[in-house]
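Re: the pair you flagged

First of the two:
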Amino acid sequence: METSTTDPILNKNFKYLFKFYFIIIIIVGFTSENEFKCTHPIYCQGNLLKTIQLSRIFSDSKTFVDMPLLEKPDVILKAFEEIPEKASNEELKNFISKYFGTRGTEIVAVEPKDWKMEIKLLKEVKDENLKEWVQFLNIKWKTLARSFNNESCGRDCYSSLWVPYPFIVAGGRFREYYYWDSYFIIEGLLLSEMYETSKGMIKNFFYLIDEYGMIPNAGRIYYLNRSQPPLLTLMVYRYYEETNDLDFLKDSIPYLEKEYSFWNKYRLVYLDEGIRTNLNYYNVDNEDPRPESYFEDILTADKYTCEKEKVRVFKNLASAAESGWDFSSRWFKDAFELSSINTENIIPVDLNSILYKVEITLSKIFSITNNHLKQHFYKHKAILRYKSMKKYLWNEEQAIWNDYLIKEKKQNTNLYISNILPSWAGINNLSKEQVDKLLDTLTPLLKYKGGTPTSMLSTGEQWDFPNAWSPLEYLLIKSLENLNYPKAWDFAKIVSKKWIENNYCTWKKTGYMFEKYDVNIVGKPGTGGEYLVQHGFGWTSAVVLYLIQNYGLDLKMIKCL
């Protein structure tokens, strides 16, 4: 990527236009980060939430905060005040039974209007076993499609964030839409020719930006204080590539800019020496346990006696959850100790790769829509980000990009799939020698028969060894492709084949698609983390469809053991 420009439009008085326009885009629509909080007196804070979650009536903390209310919140709170302070679990169960409904009843299964049995991909696949699997994956969208039911006693009576169009859920305990999941899910929906569903999911995110000024982590009010990797612009452009819907692309622009503004107002990095970088990080304004992981967060923070340290843990747990990697040794001071979590001290490679690609894509969008000032503005923002990434994240010795530890002023040199994501984003100005060195650095990740592990550290966390995840396999493969080098292409083919085969054999063995897989054993779901491994699973199905389309049309499926 070039790091300078000679465009006369950009050069003429640009420094003044740039400063003015940058100020405008980061302040529109925002007053204080405190607006990005949930204040619901039952689902997000208060003694009722604390009492139920610490009672361990439910082994999964998410269960309680997903249950709809059968009365208005003030009625329930008044009834709770009448319960003895040290009520038994039996008394609490009776209270819950009287005032809370079955989780998920505000969201109902829906038949997608644009779903069809015969998709183009089915006709292109040659192997009959593979064809059967593609048919299953295509049908799976029908089982994961949801819409909102009637509002019962009003939106205060459930934790879901209402949206106007049907959506695809992740699956399992995840009964709501998730932000970064949807990027990969839409890739799969487009391969299943479900353009209306894809467009509706994107428009749901526009609605959320209108309502809340950002896109929450997922469709629950207890996620309102955090987002997830900012992939909306890339969803919109991907949809445009498939449909050529120029009117929709034009209509999307205000939402895309507003989301970009959120990240540059609330997640911009300032280094200790007072220097404002052109880089971003995950840094959620949070002082409490996450409602959906209340007990787990209390347990983690209880390793400290100081209240200030407990608050630090809560803040950093929420910040890591915003990354989507909840949790990984990437975020820890001590790689094997969750309570040492320190997300706010880290400039992540993947987030900045995503935002670089967002800036490049916004520049393309403004070129298509003939707004050349903004076209050059976003190109210049990408150039500035690239320079900062090169300064802080690039590691010449490894020929790879590493997370940067702000206070320590050094890189985290442990190996993670995220280290190669600048290549996915389009930063591919490496020499042949650097590409060879980069591939040598990655080689330890590529030796497992079940896929590519997220890291080489076995910590018990779900975003570490031996787990592999579909979104990261997808991004790794796209990164290798973008290196545009024969050995990298060979690596991409190997990674794709392993991932297809592991997903296929696990499906043949269990009948399910899982959220994560164990790279040591073909046919085994992943483990670790705060909850049992979940099946469904939206982004897993989507990535498999993508890989079959791009690497598996002539593949003959193995006989699974």
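Second of the two:
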Amino acid sequence: MSEMNPDQHSVDERRDVVAKNVSFSYAHSESLPVRALDDISIELVHGKHVALLGRNGSGKSTMARLIDVLETPDAGSIMVLGKDTMSEEDFWEIRKSCGMVFQNPDNQIVGTLVEEDVAFGPENLGVLSPEIRIRVDEALAYVGLSDYAKRQPSQLSGGQKQKLAIAGILAMMPKILILDESTSMLDPISRDEFLAVVDRLIKEREMTVLHITHDMEEACLADYVYVLGKGKIALHGTPGEVFSHVEQIQGLGLVAPVYAELAYSVSERIGARINRETLFSRKTALAEMIRILSAANWSEIKVPIENQVPSHLPEETSAETILEVNHLSFAYEKGKKSAISSLSFSVKRGEIFAVIGHSGSGKTTLISHLNGLLRPQEGDVFLTLEDGGRRLSTRVNSDVKEIRRHVGLLFQYPEYQLFEETVEKDIAFGPTKMGMSPEEISRRTHEAISLVGLDEEILARSPFELSGGQKRRVAFAGVLSMNPDVLVLDEPAAGLDPVGRREIFEYALQLKKMGKTIILVSHNMNEAAKYADRLLVLKSGNAYGPMTPKELFAQDDYARSLGIAQVELVSCLKECSKIFPEIETCIFSVSEAAESLIRAAYSRYVSKKGCDADD
């Protein structure tokens, strides 16, 4: 791609944000300042949707903070709506014109009621009360929270809180909307609804949108894409131009959209040349892949005829039940609708068990019962210990303390669970409270830090000086140090880049091999399908399943009726099955899907060759 040329835009296009040669460094207590941005230039054209991609720590959020004047550049300039962010006179005008939704909604919620929180911004802008009422109602309707106007924000689920934060920004009616991973805690259907709202804002109000995301499918919706790597612009262009560079995207620690990876993988395996410009949408990428398969010279391509055993098949787990939930119900307010209603299921020892469902379906309420943080109002939760087979109940006070020694719970944003002076003290906190000897505490601390892939040198550092990814690993280690039999992970990879997400699930697989039981709460259907042995779907507090990933995702209508989005790779394969009806469509690994397609195309070639010989 060519370097950005300021003259490439139409003279009629108004540039709402122009950043030129911007550099910025954060002060660091232990060494030289940390360079977050290094001589970068970007533009946001009025009424356009721009995606900003990059790994954690690449400088994305820093760029957003500079545009919103939460920071000012060390070098270079940023003009927002024609005003200089370095000008004290223009400070408030710029801030009024920019609305920013941060990654964690709890950091933005200030009201005691949902509607009060949405009204907070307009009130501070001096908007009159009748207009505030209209804005609040419209904003809540936009994000689907009208029925929650009188609720306390603390009663909302994580996804609903994120919608509330978005509504608070929309009520201020900014000209520029900055989204910093604002969909990371939304379930797929809620995410799609929100992205539809963003699209409406662009089309109906000509709002300019800067969308920071790790989701390549979301980035494909943008008009223009910038990719940052170590504080510099590594790639930029239209989505089609950027995602045609699959290898470079991967080298930057990101992933291309699933359909682009699938088409690229097929072309690489059969030695064909792919038209990279087709990798900007599922339709064009799959059409190009099918063209390549149809035109391949199969007489010179070695393809295994026998189907290989898929590498993603779950390992055998014990048939023994470790957790049992019987007719569990819970309501946060007496006389109100139950958050969960008569749930019954069991979890096997040594399996990865995923709990999925839309925001507000009861997932967090359920897992809060598994180690006694919430006590059952109806029903029961039982834990069966491996040592002697003792059966403990969360209804029995004397059992709860013992249950908490065996069931570790890691909530969303686990890095917020850090509080000690050093990493070592933080990891050792649990074992210390359990009354272990200093030798045992030290052994467990070092084992835990090794399990999460961190060097022991980090033990002496303050956890608050670490990067976001390192903090999450330390929080993970703090739970592992207690050596629980069951580890409950509530959206453990939320907000992490693809490499960080993969590392989290590699830890989970490693723990499974050690005989641990993993209960995973996730909005990411691709990951739930790929890593879980079984799935439990929650919808409006009711349970469906457990079932295997194939049992759920093979049935489009059934999954849709439960509010579950289809796995993207499965959707791609179902499109391909129109040409290759014999392929297996419920595959959750790109490499295995590519092999399946190649074998299908090769089998078709062999069959056609045989028919031609008969003729």
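The mean pLDDT is 86.

-B.
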